[in-house]
Write a structure and sequence with these properties.
With 279 residues, this protein is an alpha/beta fold. It is 39% helix and 19% strand. It has helices spanning 12-19, 23-29, 36-44, 62-67, 69-77, 87-93, 113-118, 133-145, 163-168, 184-193, 209-215, 235-238, 258-273; strands spanning 31-35, 55-60, 81-84, 102-107, 123-127, 150-154, 178-182, 197-201, 207-208, 222-226, 243-246. Helix 3 (36-44) runs parallel beside helix 5. The termini are far apart.
């Protein structure tokens, strides 16, 4: 693969990538960092709504470029500029304790909320007041795994492109449409207008998830609204929902964390929406 061309952290290319750790620079450049082979592989295969490749640059150590040659080739095929960098230089850009030798620079890829509505989604996760980037990324991953059609982050939630969010999504960020900065009232109004039932997930909800499933009320288009990790959903957000639903606790645990509760709710809807096969 050759020798590193970037051997100084003062290189303009390295400095520009390092600045993307800060939200204001991400917003200014409309670019973010994706680290590791999984995220870079997904980024290399992704194109935005304007059909432009999402991955614009790839920084790789010589060892990583050799180990993940297929990913590097995919990045080049996508039109990304590939830079071989010294491991110490890459560590300056990395946001992880143990860098994996591949760091991609990607264009913002969020979708207009109107496009999500126009696609008539059947299952949507709405993150309202979610402040922890790891939780946001994990819920996005759960939504992807459950077959959701979209994720919406309200204007009170964490930055989608926070490096921890991107990392926690484990590549799912590149798999489904995500809208950002949507006021929760607008999100609910728009989804309801598109024929989607709004369910707020709350540990103190009046309705039980098991009862909803038994009643057969979850087979239609559904949006789950998930709240803050510490204090859940405020009353004004709960009031917007068609129902406030709690995940039943059958054992002695006091509660479920946000990502676990989101996975249970999303999979419950996904199962209810799937055609039943008899044989």
């Amino acid at each position: 693969m050759g020798t590193p061309e970037l051997i100084s952290a003062r290189s303009p290319r390295v400095a520009a990538a390092r600045r993307l750790a800060r939200r204001n620079f991400r917003g200014k450049e409309r670019s973010f960092i994706a680290e590791g082979p999984q995220a870079v592989r997904e980024a290399a295969g992704h194109r935005g709504g304007d059909a432009r490749p999402t991955l614009t640059e790839l920084f790789a150590t010589v060892e990583a470029a050799e180990r993940y040659a297929a990913i590097v080739d995919a990045a080049r095929d996508a039109g990304a500029r590939v830079h071989l960098a010294d491991a110490d230089v890459l560590a300056e850009v990395s946001q992880t304790v143990t860098p994996q030798g591949l760091i991609g620079v990607c264009r913002f890829l969020d979708s207009p909320f109107e496009d999500i509505l126009a696609a008539k989604p059947a299952l949507v996760a709405v993150l309202a007041h979610v402040r922890d980037p790891g939780n946001a990324g994990t819920v996005l991953r759960c939504a992807d795994a459950a077959g959701a059609d979209a994720v919406v982050l309200t204007d009170a939630s964490v930055d989608l492109y926070n490096p921890k969010s991107v990392r926690a999504s484990a590549g799912s960020l590149f798999h489904l449409p995500v809208a950002v900065g949507v006021p929760v009232e607008q999100a609910v109004r728009g989804l309801r207008g598109a024929g989607v039932r709004i369910l707020a997930a709350d540990g103190a909800g009046e309705d039980d998830l098991d009862d909803e499933l038994d009643a057969g009320t979850m087979g239609g288009p559904t949006a789950w609204v998930f709240g803050n990790e510490a204090w859940g959903l405020p009353e004004e957000t709960r009031a917007l929902a068609d129902a406030v639903v709690r995940v039943p606790i059958h054992g002695k645990a006091e509660s479920l964390n946000l990502a676990t509760a989101a996975a249970v709710c999303l999979y419950a809807s996904a199962r209810a929406q799937r055609p039943r096969h008899t044989g």
